[in-house]
Each structure stands twice: as C-alpha cells, then as structure tokens.
Specification:
homodimer, mainly alpha, Arc Repressor Mutant, subunit A, 11 helices, DNA-binding
Chain lengths: ~200, ~200
DNA sequence: AATATAAATGAATGTTCGTTCATTTATTGT
DNA sequence: ACAATAAATGAACGAACATTCATTTATATT
C-alpha cells in the first residue's frame, strides 16, 4: 500500500496554524489551506474528520507541547523562590520561542472551541503545579490563598507583559519591548506580593 | 421622508453582539443576523457600509462606553490607594454588569480587527490614567516602574480573576466564583507588591 | 510482473456567504 | 391630495464555503 507523506502532513499543519493566526478563525478555510499547502481539499479529509476536528487536533497537540515545556526542570518539591523562577523562565521561553503557536492557543482560548481543547489538559501537569502552591503555603513561604488568586497574582502579570510585547502595545511613547531585565524586575515585584 | 426605525436599529446591534459572542467572529454572518433581527439583509447595508464596518462600529461604541465607565469617580490627583480602589471597582463593575459586551471587546482584542477598534482610544482616558501612575511614583507612594510593568502587576490579576469567573474555569475542585471578598483580598496582595 | 491497499487527487455537490438593486413603504412638507 | 425623499424590502448575483466521490497513484507484499 501507499504510505502517507509525512512531509505533506507536517506542511498542512504548519500552514493551518499560520493561516489561523494570520487571519483569525473566520479567515481560515479548508479550500484556502489546501491551496496554500499544495494539496487537494480531499486530502485534508483523510487527515482529519472535518474542519473542526482539524482545528481541535492542532490545538490539542500544541497544548500538550506547552504543558511538557512548562514542566521542564520543574519539581513541585522545589523551594517557592526556585520553582517560581523556573515557571517564569519556562513560560517566557515558550511564548517568545513559539510566538505563532502560542498565538494559536491564545486564539483558541477565546473561541467557542476552548472547552474541547483545554478541558482535558494533562492531569500530571495540573497536579504538579497544584502541589507546588500547596507546599509553599504549608511551609509558610507565601500567604495562604486560593489557587485562582495565586495564579492571577503570580502569572497573569507575566502573560500580560508578553502580550504587550507580541502585540506591540505601548502605553508610553515608544513601543514596548520585552526583555530579560524587565521580566525579572516584574518577577521581583510579584514575589514581594506573594511572600510572607 | 421616512424616518429610520431606531428600535430596529438597536435590535440589530443587540443581536449582532449576541451572535458574535455566542458563535465567535467566524460564526457571525450578515444573513443570519438579518434573519435573527427580522430585517432584510439589505437594511443592514443602510446602517453599515459592510460587514467589517458593522463589527468595527459595534466595537468602537463599546470601547467608548468602557473608557467612560472606567473614569467614573476617578481623578488622577487621588491618592494611590484611593485611585486604585476606584479603578478596581469600576473595572469589576463593567465586566460583571456587561458580561456580553465585555466578551465582545475581548473577542475583538484577539482578532485582526484589534487595531481598528482600540488604536484610537480616547486620549483623555489614557492621559488620566498615565498621570495617575506618574503622580504615585513622583510622590514615592509606589516603586518606580514603566507603565507596562505597572499595568501588568496592578490590573492583569483582576482581569484574570474575572476571566476565571466568566469562563467558569476552576483550578481546584469546585468551579471558581468571583466575589467582592476575593476581589479585595487579591487587591490587598497586589497593593503589597506595588507600595514602597 | 501482478495484486492489494491505502494515499492522494480534481471535479463536482449543494449550501451559505457578502453584497446589490429595482421596487415598495412610510413619513414629511406642500 | 400630492410630491419628495429616505427607509426598508425580497429576490437575486457570483464567489467562496465544507464536504464527497469516482478515479488515479504509489508502495509493500506476493
């Protein structure tokens, strides 16, 4: 039998992500994708059940890659300071090194497909980060607070900095540029809020 | 001459926002909108130049309402503590009292139309909030930092709490519910980070 | 070389899309 | 009552859409 052309399959994925990020979910169509990837529209239906399945699969795959990246060098038993540093490092790395794929996840997070992509996130990932916070509170390293409050104070500022950077938003005169320096400066401010 | 039916015009706006929020920008179409608002498709082209113009106008109108709301009871000459309290109050009020319209703005912020909707935000609004932060730093009420870092630490946690609430995201067992109590608890933590 | 099999295709399906236009409707000033 | 005018309409346009299908192509096994 004839084998599936993996190069072709990868090209389809790449072009699909590009198009979704560039033109939004509404600018994305199967026929345009087929044209861009130099493939017959029918081929897409060999790879994927339908349009929604294609988008969801791309999202799931990338969400998995993200969780894997975020656990690199991380251990829930780490000290709070050290664990937080690793998390900020990993999150910044992922967003800055994969801006297009990160933008795909961002699009999906604000779309009707959000549930289908993010509701089945890796259990180990959620557990690991949950235990980390639990430990820090138990050890009296940080103020006691719910996970939602913790997440909002601990990570939302970082994500917002990255968003300002990638979307070229400037609140002052010159456009804002993310840097290691400004990241760790913000980190210090955030840590000041959390530590006892 | 015949006058424009304002009730009809308002209904079109309302249904359009509903549909965009419910089905995303890609699920939104002029023909479906016409059907839902019991209007001829052609009528939409009396109100708006084309589809994009319709979306952008809805966005601009709502963005204006938002900036007006955020300046209520606010004065850049306020003390840092007081001004921040008003800002958190206003922002929470807007998002919780207008969840659908807020969701529209959120959608547009993550779409290719972002620039057309948000790049011409009211000057007075930006100036007012900018002066507020500048004053606080000059008076040594808070640590010196760029506006982007300030915004990220001061407001991103609040927006994230609201997002968790409206999207029904739970990091622990039971679904997360926003409340005044949790809001001011988070406020206190954030203020701890910013104050000298 | 022949067979089997799944990949890949181009053309075609019917549907929905955004937009236009000739016509009708409602309201004002004469 | 009538003329003037803009609102509002339903039907229609071609274009693009998601998806299907009969057919061809490439490869592994016989």
């Amino acid at each position: 039998m004839r084998y599936r052309d993996e190069h072709k399959e990868l090209l389809v994925k790449e072009k699909a992500i590009e198009m979704i990020v560039r033109e939004g979910l509404d600018g994305f169509s199967m026929q345009k994708l087929a044209r861009e990837a130099r493939v017959s529209p029918a081929t897409l239906y060999i790879y994927y059940k339908d349009k929604e399945d294609l988008i969801v699969q791309l999202g799931l795959e990338e969400a998995t890659r993200l969780t894997t990246t975020l656990l690199k060098d991380f251990d829930p038993a780490m000290s709070f300071e050290e664990g937080m540093r690793v998390q900020w490092r990993n999150r910044a790395d992922y967003w800055l090194e994969n801006p297009v794929k990160a933008a795909l996840l961002e699009q999906l997070k604000h779309s009707p497909l959000r549930t289908r992509v993010f509701d089945t996130l890796d259990k180990g990932f959620i557990d690991s980060l949950g235990r980390f916070v639990h430990n820090a509170i138990a050890n009296k390293e940080i103020l006691p607070m719910t996970r939602e409050v913790f997440w909002s104070v601990a990570y939302a500022p970082l994500y917002n900095l990255i968003r300002f950077h990638t979307e070229g938003i400037s609140l002052a005169g010159e456009p804002f540029r993310f840097s290691e320096e400004i990241m760790w400066e913000t980190f210090a401010v955030v840590m000041k809020a959390l530590k006892i």
